[in-house]
Design a protein that fits this description.
Elements: H1 4-19, H2 21-42, H3 44-49, H4 68-73, H5 75-78, H6 86-93, E1 108-111, E2 121-124, H7 126-139, H8 145-153, E3 158-162, H9 169-180, H10 182-185, E4 188-192, H11 197-207, E5 211-215, H12 216-228, E6 237-241, H13 247-257, E7 260-261, E8 274-276, E9 282-284, E10 289-294, E11 309-314, E12 322-326, E13 331-333, E14 346-349, E15 357-360, E16 366-369, H14 371-378, E17 384-393, E18 396-403, H15 409-426, E19 433-436, E20 452-453
Parallel strand pairs: 3-4, 3-5, 5-6, 6-7, 17-20, 18-19
Antiparallel strand pairs: 1-2, 8-9, 9-14, 10-11, 11-12, 13-14, 15-16, 17-18
Helix pairs in contact: 1-7, 12-13, 14-15
Protein name: Phenylacetate-coenzyme A ligase PaaK-like adenylate-forming protein
Organism: Nonomuraea roseoviolacea subsp. carminata
Region (Disordered): 437-458
């Protein structure tokens, strides 16, 4: 059941869309002004950063830019609840068994994998979670009667295909709803990608989900299994996320599963950032979030042109304000109204590619592995602060590592090599040579780290 706060926010969200772009803009400005005032009053970091600004700020362009590195360096000053400290949060996320548990009895905590070179620790309050749930119900408004019946026929069961363990957003969210929202949580189930593909396929066939969510790369592999007849599920909705979804990739998922496909573009920093439409665009929930495509100097980029990066503002989370935050992705803002009819601004994302690594299998066929497999493995590996895997030949993988201070680089490499070899063998990728690189991981000009670089094929 929805709480009263979620119902109230959901009603307002639907009303905003019906009233059109001007009503959405009014809400955005009022909520931005409220969040800036709250951050100044309750966060020492923002109080210092915003000195000299006007008393009321409802235009994001007036705000200085922040990023993960700057915020994490001032974590205890950044948060608005003095009981939330970096030491306490680190201690909390060190225990994978606490994923989805309420931190300090009232907050959800999620971590990022560190694609920008810094691991993020993000705390979300009840208001932020309520907005996330409410806007999710608005995104589902495009389902037809037939789709709703298909969902109901399978009991609304949702399969989240991801890597369990750790405090990553997908795992934490599912665990949170199971614990805090039992009626909703009992129809959510996480399926581990840390197993050979046939085992995952068999589990999904038994579960027969009404909807399937996961990283695009993994869902593409499952689409191949569906096309081959080994996977036999008929979800009403497929929700790919985490990686750039091309129109061709979305069409393949829709055809393989005979389902509505609604790609999601979001981030741990703002989980409700946007929702996909039938035309392959991401519509920004701009009544509760701000998205600014900008150039390298953080100046606005005209609609229709790719940005250097994108700045986001989360207008719901009061415990850890995210304001004019450099996310690092390149986006394109649609210059004309979207054919789907939504008044919400529409973007396409260029900065997250679904990089599958493909190797010869022992039977002579090709085996393709999702980038998420490698990320969830190495993010937990002791001593590894960053990594990059570069496929330089069909059976050669070059491993770039950034080792933490005080860690034995040779010992870390030995552990990483063993874990990668085990992963490849488990997924029947035969005779792959693992090379230890002398150079560290290389960042792109936009500042983000492309952690998986597949072989460029003719």
């Amino acid at each position: 059941m929805m709480s009263e706060s979620v119902r109230r926010i959901a009603r307002d969200a639907r009303q905003a869309v019906r009233q059109g772009s001007e009503a959405i803009e009014r809400r955005r400005r009022a909520r931005l002004a409220e969040m800036v005032a709250h951050a100044r009053a309750s966060s020492p970091y923002y109080r210092e950063l915003y000195q000299g600004l006007p008393e009321r700020v409802d235009d994001p362009a007036l705000l200085p830019v922040t990023d993960k590195k700057a915020l994490m360096a001032r974590f205890d000053d950044w948060v608005t609840d003095r009981e939330v400290t970096l030491e306490r949060v680190r201690e909390f996320v060190a225990d994978p068994a606490r994923a989805g548990e309420a931190f300090l009895g009232r907050y959800m905590v999620a971590t990022t994998s560190g694609t920008s070179g810094v691991r993020g620790l993000f705390v979300q309050d009840e208001r932020c979670l309520a907005v996330h749930t409410a806007l999710g119900s608005r995104a589902g408004g495009g389902l037809g009667v037939r789709d709703v019946l298909r969902l109901a026929a399978r009991g609304g069961r949702t399969a989240i295909v991801t890597a369990p363990g750790g405090h990553f957003s997908t795992v934490v969210s599912a665990a949170w709803f199971r614990r805090e929202r039992p009626l909703m949580g009992r129809v959510l189930r996480v399926f581990s990608i840390n197993q050979p593909l046939p085992g995952l396929v068999a589990e999904l066939n038994r579960y027969n989900p009404a909807s399937v969510a996961g990283f695009l790369g993994m869902l593409t592999l499952l689409a191949q299994e569906q096309e081959a007849g080994r996977l036999r599920i008929r979800p009403a909705m497929v929700i790919p996320g985490g990686e750039t979804a091309t129109p061709e990739a979305l069409e393949r998922l829709a055809s393989a599963f005979r389902a509505k496909v609604r790609a999601a573009y979001a981030a741990t920093e703002c989980g409700y950032l946007s929702s996909g439409c039938a035309y392959g665009w991401y519509h920004v929930n701009s009544d509760w979030a701000v998205v600014e495509p900008v150039d390298a100097d953080h100046r606005p980029v005209p609609a229709g042109q790719p940005s250097h990066t994108v700045l986001i503002s989360n207008l719901a989370n009061r415990v850890q304000p995210i304001l004019r935050y450099d996310l690092g992705d390149s986006v394109v803002l649609r210059p004309d109204p979207c054919p789907c009819g939504s008044p919400l601004p529409a973007i396409r994302v260029r900065g997250r590619a679904a990089d599958l690594l493909s190797f010869p299998a022992r039977d002579g066929e090709q085996v393709s592995l999702s980038p998420m497999l490698f990320g969830t493995l190495l993010d937990r590996s002791p001593g590894v602060e960053g990594f990059q895997l570069v496929q330089t030949a069909p059976t050669t993988l070059r491993v770039r590592l950034r080792v933490g201070d005080g860690a034995d680089a040779d010992a870390v490499w030995g552990t990483v090599r063993g874990e990668l070899a085990h992963l490849l063998a488990e997924h029947e990728a035969g005779n792959v040579t693992l090379e230890r690189a002398e150079e560290p991981p290389q960042q792109s000009p936009g500042g983000k780290l492309r952690r998986i670089i597949p072989l460029t094929r003719p």
